[in-house]
Amino acid sequence: MNTVETSADPACSTPSVEEEILIRNLLISHDPDGRDLDSDLLLQAVKNVLHFATSSETKLDTAERSYNSQIEEVGSQKFIGDVVDKILRELFYKHHHGEDLQTRTMNLLDLLRNFRWNEKMVFILAGLAFSYGEFWLVIRLCHQNPLAGSISVLKQFPSDLKLFKPRLKALSCLIGKMMELTEHVVKFDSLPISEVKMDPELVETTKHHMYLAVYWVARSAIKGSSHIADLRAVKPKRVHVGISKFKDKVVILYISKPELLTPEDLLFLLHQMYNNPHISKLEGSYEIIYIPILTSTSWSDSEEQNYDLVSNFLPWYLIRKPQRLSSAAMTFIKQEWNYEEEPISVVIDNKGSVINLNAIDTMKIWGSEAYPFSASREEELWKFEKSTFLLMFNGIDPLLTDRSKVDYDAHKMILIQIREGRNVCIYGGDNVRWIREFQAKIEETILSKALQLEIVYVGKRTLTSLVRNILLAETQYQPSNIPISVTNIQFFWTRLDSIRRSILRQRNKANVDHILQDVSWLLEIDESATGWAMLGDGTSRDTLRLRGKEVMECLDMFPKWQGNVSKWGLVGAIRMALEPPSTPTPCGHSETIPFDESLLGKNLFCNQCKRPMKGFVTYE
After folding, report:
1. Where is the Sieve element occlusion N-terminal domain (predicted)?
2. How many CB atoms lie within 10 A of CB 195?
3. Which CATH architecture has domain 243-382?
4. Residues 35, 114: contact at Cβ < 8 Å?
5. 152-166, 262-276, 384-398, 509-523: range with lowest mean pLDDT
6. Cα gap 366→268, rounded to integer Å
7. % pLDDT > 90, the chain
8. Whole-model pTM?
9. Contact at 8 Å (CB) between 221 and 127?
10. Residue 429 φ/ψ region, left for φ over 0, alpha for ψ in the -120 to 50 degree band, beta for the rest
């Protein structure tokens, strides 16, 4: 018997609690009956369908013809066709029955309970490929074959796919990843594991990954099928309205190049404006009109495509025939409203007066809560902001098509901890070694002594593959961390940019210098440091910002400051250890700050001598 020695990354060996529950449910619905199916042959048939659906080739080579003849022999077993039919019913005919995605996924896998894991995946892909291939076959032939044209009409397929290219491209990428994952599982299932001595823990870990892979392929197939079904329902709608539509309403003119914002920025803006608890109270009070401005005298093909996409899918109004926008109008926008190719949102009140030359950051920070989006409303909102941590995370909500409960609960947990004034530590960077060292020291020091601290990894502004891998390891290996999704990390950094720009526009009208310092530090250190951490009391103005080496020094000094936590608080105790008083006696310095209820009972420290300050209340 052969022996294979392997080593596994511990970060990938321990499934999370949610994954353990999911795996247990998957195993309950798994009861193979021993029937034999040639997964390789069926998978090859699926690959052929998907290949010709996404390419312009129309001829089979000799090898593919040979594969197809073998598949026909295997496919003579009636049960294969019956299973695919049942999968199609699960994928498409239950699309509008209102069941949630999790329930539909488990029902689909329960339907395939009598098959091996790799066979489940191949069958699911076969069902999706059948519908996807049929769609493309009809679409390609509908303009040259009367039968295909009639079928296209009966199935209500769109006659022009130009507007759906981004969606179809995303669907094609998803199916490609599903195929890649399925091929790996099929290969793993064919390995002679029983004949080779392997590390049992490694085999068990690999099987856990396989179970999860089957689950995600099933879940992705359901999502993919819903997109195919939606292509029949989504029809381009362009309704012409007159200027009277906007009478007595606040109007936001969103002005940009046809490319709009980056996908992350646009997604966040839409989320803030339309997924906000205040939106129901303001329904019909304001409208957004998109005005694309060209950078040249004529539209390019890419600009035309972007505009067509926007005009059919954004919940905004658009000006008719923007290509004909007069040069005088564009000159006015550039000179009077200071448009310089970066997107702006000009706000006009219900009386026709311009009340904000650029409310885009206000919209991103507070969403519809900032109504009527005037400059004075922005100034007013800043007067209520005290805590950097609360401002950074408030308003960031999981924006997933299926709204993952795990991610939603994690976000809710962060806000609850912050509002309760608990200690919060956010950290970032993409240096894996530093991240691991930081996590180990946190576990050895603060968390081992049961000191309360909520930890959140926020990565980097640029979402590199390193950040994604670290984030994946966080959710699997760091139970002490509050998990945060990739989407929310992108929203976090987008929000920081908007916060800084908005504060700088206030020009000292609001007493939020501490927030500006924190946000600016985060944005600047993200570009330079390999790792960093920011700690603070959730509701306090006081934060502690530390670079890579300083973080480790702080944790190394844990025995020195841990005894002062109950007296000065976590941040105060660390600061007293890192920055001891510079003078032997108090400096006598005093500072007057606006009243803030959240500061009552909190420890404040002198900026000069670093000693705790006594608090007094004065009345004007």
Report:
1. 18-236
2. 8
3. 3-Layer(aba) Sandwich (3.40)
4. yes
5. 152-166
6. 11
7. 12
8. 0.66
9. yes
10. left
